[in-house]
Design goal:
By secondary structure, the chain is α/β, with parallel strands linked by helices. About 35% of the residues lie in helices and about 20% in strands. It has 13 helices and 9 strands. The chain has a 7-stranded mixed β-sheet with strand order 4-3-2-5-6-9-7, sandwiched between helices. It has a two-stranded antiparallel ribbon with strand order 1-8. Helix 3 links the parallel strand 2 and strand 3. The termini are far apart. Bound molecules: S-adenosylmethionine. The site of S-adenosylmethionine has 23 residues, from strand 1, helix 3 and strand 3.
């Protein structure tokens, strides 16, 4: 039997009827191929008792896929009023499984919308992907899993191991709290309009406990100082925090002549403990 979601008009019709010309300022690059959005939804499975949160449903391609793949409860946060109007039919077809929230995801307190645990599945607006991810990482214990489409470059920075140019603050923040996995790439042509860059679906699965003990604010302070001058030796880069950086590094068991990108996350945590 055809489900009410399957019976909805094609996304291109929805876009035409609601005049959803994509706005660059809102990072709007829509996915209209239901095979692809269903592949993304399946990559985010299995569902658990967590509420699925979708940031930026747009015309609803991925939202339809989540519902067709039987996500039990979806809350979608969208700031474009035009898209919210276009999603009315989908809310009706979802028969109680979809709720919309109008607003800016950066300003939205998820706890005010629904109780944790949460599972994020989204094709993120690329201009705000990093601040959104950093906000979620700060409360990683409330999430079961985060599966998001981001620029390939951001995905590579999230998953980067020590030793390369992609390893930096984002890698430390993400991998300290989560297991990070790159799932698959999606080329520009899959989007309407096509972006300039390739995208990657990335999965962040919170660890039972952070990789090593550290205060999050102190860890962020140390990594910011270290990577702000990533070409310098740590004894110089960390002078902004400690005039006697040499001694602090030695105390933490780290050779002061090393550079930020060679440090493991555990070593950054050891430094944060010196603060
Ligand atoms: N999920 C849809 C898809 O895959 O076709 C649209 C994805 S599009 C890359 C990003 C979506 O995020 C757009 O619908 C845009 O309006 C929305 N958006 C942009 N900035 C936002 C914000 N600050 N808060 C909530 N939604 C936002």
């Amino acid at each position: 039997m055809t489900s009410p979601v399957e019976a909805l008009p094609p996304l291109r019709d929805v876009i035409a009827r609601h005049d959803l010309a994509a706005r660059k300022s809102l990072g709007q690059n829509f996915l209209l191929d239901l095979n692809l959005t269903r592949k993304i939804a399946r990559a985010a499975m299995p569902w658990s008792d967590a509420t699925v949160i979708e940031i930026g449903p747009g015309p609803g391609g991925l939202t339809r896929a989540l519902l067709l793949e039987n996500a039990p409860k979806v809350v979608a946060v969208e700031r474009d009023e035009r898209c919210l109007a276009a999603l009315g039919e989908l809310v009706a077809a979802a028969e109680g499984r979809l709720a919309l929230h109008a607003g800016d995801a950066l300003e939205t307190d998820l706890a005010a919308l629904t109780t944790p645990p949460w599972q994020i599945v989204a094709n993120l607006p690329y201009n705000i992907a990093t601040p959104l991810l950093l906000g979620w990482l700060g409360q990683a214990d409330k999430f079961t899993r985060i599966t998001v489409l981001v620029q390939k470059e951001v995905a590579e920075r999230l998953a980067a191991p020590p030793g390369g140019k992609n390893y930096g603050r984002l890698a430390v923040a993400a991998q300290w709290r989560c297991h990070v996995r790159l799932l698959f790439d999606i080329g520009p042509k899959a989007f309407v309009p096509p972006p300039k860059v390739t995208s990657t679906l990335v999965e962040l699965e919170p660890r039972d406990r952070p990789l090593a003990e550290a205060d999050p604010a102190k860890l962020e302070r140390v990594t910011a100082a270290a990577f702000n001058q990533r070409r310098k030796m740590l004894r110089t880069a960390l002078k902004s925090i400690w005039p006697n950086a040499d001694a602090k590094l030695t105390e933490a068991g780290i050779d002061p002549t090393r550079r930020a990108e060679t440090l493991t996350i555990e070593e950054f945590c050891a430094l944060a403990q010196q603060l």
